[in-house]
């Protein structure tokens, strides 16, 4: 029996990693996606994430996990972040290690701690609906479940994974909570259309809410060595031994996404529940997503992102992202993507926006790495 | 009976005017098309025109007519140009005034003078064939005809006017000289295809070769006031009175293309002949033309124009024109046109290359004129 209410034992964890190479050349190694303002609202995605979580948890219960290289940028973006809640990785080890370390540190601080993991680089509109979903998820987590938040699809998206919902769990909440039957990989368009038609399939927004100990114990079933190492680091976290422990153990950790180490096995064993939510959510994975976000999906519209951007266009559609005050003139272009930075100009189409990643990968091996 | 051979009375006139607004933002008011290097060969089109004419006429018989604003640029490009052969206009008055003034000055210097007018901003490959055609045209001109040089079409071009050839004129030359039956405006694609199929239609390259007096007398039938004014200016040309005379008369001159004041009426009255030629010719009227020129028409190729241009492309095709040393990355673009200058970036397609002019016209009235 816990004496402190679940929501008061709840810490928001923001894993802030990932360059977002599909958003190159706007995103760079030194300017990863979570540090960018992709909505034109004036805040980086990280800052917007912080602002969104503030009504749910006070600053002392918001934690950020990021790479050493981004420590200063993160502190600059989030002046309210407490030093003890900034967890840095010496090298990127994917989400199991990042979220797992946060969980282990929180478990160390309070064995009854509940945590929720929320990406630093997604866009959400409808904060009240988001907050309500999180609070419902926290209640389910307090009962020992691993909860996720699924988004009701508004179109047959092929760029997101889906959650197939099972039985409604009215024992956990009167509405909107379901067993997770399984997680489904990004579907083709026909399958995505069928999901939309038949219902019961939600977008997987990659949010996980659980007791820290439950999350770690679940992860330990798949990755016992990883969890043992994370708990060892956490046991000395905040002391002078922390750096040494992390130094010794971190580089040997396996790189595995929390989806595979936790979410899928938990779903298979009936420990995963889903809160179905209606807020607008996008992982803004490529420039086509940003264009749709800025034009709110209106066909034929041209989206413009950039402070000094001057755009002269006829009936052209797509998106112009400008980091200069040059005039960008478009003539007769449909669904074009133009990204104008100081040292790189990218021109592609919304249909090929995903292929930017392939170009970036090519540059890594063929030279031009200084521009990444 | 002339004692001096026709070719030794022949002066090449290069009207160097026209911004080339379809090539904006590469072309600007201060950097008109004829001052640009559009082939990547290192020479401006004007300089290349000069080089092409040198084997036909010595420097003392090559004349340039240009706007006052471009005097210095022209002199810089053509150090061999004699001061008395640089004719400047106080304001642009279209080709009848420009070529007519040159003709009047040459007529003043030598009543038997023959002139040929060759645009400063076209691209020609096959100089020997060009020289031979010009020499044939000079012979016909000496006989009192107005000669033009028509290019055998290699594809059903819709961007050029055509010359419909009549009877072969073996009295003037053993081969390749025909009466001009009429000039035909830019055709649609079906018509252009039919021209190519049936033969007898040549591209109108806008070259006119005639005795100066014949050209002026023909022009005087349509535009007597214009020709009278030009002859009045020419009568004092080279004296201290020239500037005053030009100042007084020039602004009142009608703006009319030499095609309408001379070529079409001359054709209608049987005074126009055509030399059919096989050299490669292009008026490089838009970026699609430049792309075709640089890739020699190979489909799927990407053309690159610019000294410092760095281009990273997958299977994209079209043209990149770069005035910077920025990396230009293209992903999945077909027949794209990217023009990257210091203050303007243009993105369009080969299919819309002609529409750049409409954009420029819009800018003239709606602001942004400082970028033109």
Descriptive account of the structure:
Two copies of one chain form a homodimer. The first copy, chain A, has 372 residues and is an alpha/beta fold. Chain A has two domains: 277 residues, Spore Coat Polysaccharide Biosynthesis Protein SpsA, Chain A, CATH 3.90.550.10; 85 residues, no CATH class. Chain A is built from eleven helices and 17 strands. A five-stranded mixed β-barrel of chain A has the order 6-9-7-8-10, surrounded by four helices. In chain A, strands 12-14-16-17 form a four-stranded mixed beta sheet, covered by helices on one side. In chain A, β7 and β8 form a beta hairpin. The longest helix of chain A is centred in the first third of the chain and has 16 residues. At the A-B interface, β15, β16, β17 and α11 of A face β15, β16, β17 and α11 of B.
β-strand number of chain A:
17
State the helical fraction of chain A.
Answer: 25-40%
Total count of helical runs of at least 4 residues of chain A: 11
CATH names the topology of the largest domain in chain A as Spore Coat Polysaccharide Biosynthesis Protein SpsA, Chain A
Main β sheet profile of chain A: 5 strands, mixed, barrel
Domain module tally of chain A:
2
Judging by the overall fold, what is the CATH architecture of the largest domain in chain A? Alpha-Beta Complex
Task: Strand order, main sheet of chain A: write it out.
Answer: 6-9-7-8-10
Using only CA atoms, what is the Rg of chain A? 21 Å
Oligomer: homodimer
What features would you highlight for this structure?
homodimer; 372 residues; alpha/beta; Spore Coat Polysaccharide Biosynthesis Protein SpsA, Chain A; 2 domains; 5-stranded mixed β-barrel; 4-stranded mixed β-sheet; 33% helix; globular; EC 2.7.7.13 (chains A, B); transferase (chains A, B); NTP_transferase_dom (chains A, B)
């Amino acid at each position: 029996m816990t004496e402190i209410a679940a929501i008061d034992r709840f810490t928001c964890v923001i894993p802030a990693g990932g360059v977002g190479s599909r958003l190159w050349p706007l995103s760079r190694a030194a300017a990863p996606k979570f540090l960018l303002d992709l909505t034109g609202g004036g805040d980086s995605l990280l800052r917007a994430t912080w602002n969104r979580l503030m009504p749910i948890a006070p600053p002392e219960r918001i934690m950020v996990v990021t790479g050493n290289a981004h420590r200063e940028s993160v502190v600059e973006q989030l002046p309210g972040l407490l030093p003890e809640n900034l967890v840095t990785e010496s090298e990127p080890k994917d989400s199991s290690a990042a979220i797992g370390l946060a969980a282990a540190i929180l478990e160390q601080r309070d064995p009854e701690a509940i945590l929720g993991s929320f990406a630093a680089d997604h866009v959400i509109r409808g904060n009240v609906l988001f907050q309500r979903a999180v609070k419902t998820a926290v209640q389910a987590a307090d009962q020992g479940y691993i909860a996720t938040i699924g988004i009701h699809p508004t179109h047959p998206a092929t760029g997101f994974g889906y959650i197939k919902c099972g039985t409604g769990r009215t024992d956990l909440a009167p509405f909107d909570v379901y067993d997770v039957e399984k997680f489904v990989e990004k579907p083709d368009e026909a399958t995505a259309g069928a999901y939309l038609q038949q219902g019961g399939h939600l977008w997987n927004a990659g949010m996980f809410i659980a007791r820290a100990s439950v999350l770690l114990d679940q992860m330990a079933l798949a990755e016992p060595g990883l969890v043992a190492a994370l708990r060892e680091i956490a046991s000395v976290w905040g002391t002078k031994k922390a750096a040494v422990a992390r130094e010794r153990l971190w580089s040997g950790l396996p790189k595995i996404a929390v989806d595979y180490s936790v979410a899928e096995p938990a779903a298979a064993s009936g420990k995963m529940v889903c809160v179905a939510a209606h807020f607008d959510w996008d992982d803004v994975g490529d420039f086509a997503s940003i264009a749709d976000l800025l034009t709110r999906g209106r066909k034929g519209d041209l989206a413009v992102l950039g402070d000094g951007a001057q755009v002269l266009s006829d009936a052209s559609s797509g998106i112009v992202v400008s980091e200069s005050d040059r005039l960008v003139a478009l003539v007769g272009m449909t669904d074009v993507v133009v990204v104008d930075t100081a040292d790189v100009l990218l021109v592609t189409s919304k249909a090929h926006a995903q292929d930017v990643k392939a170009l970036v990968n090519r540059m890594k091996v063929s030279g031009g790495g200084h521009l990444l």
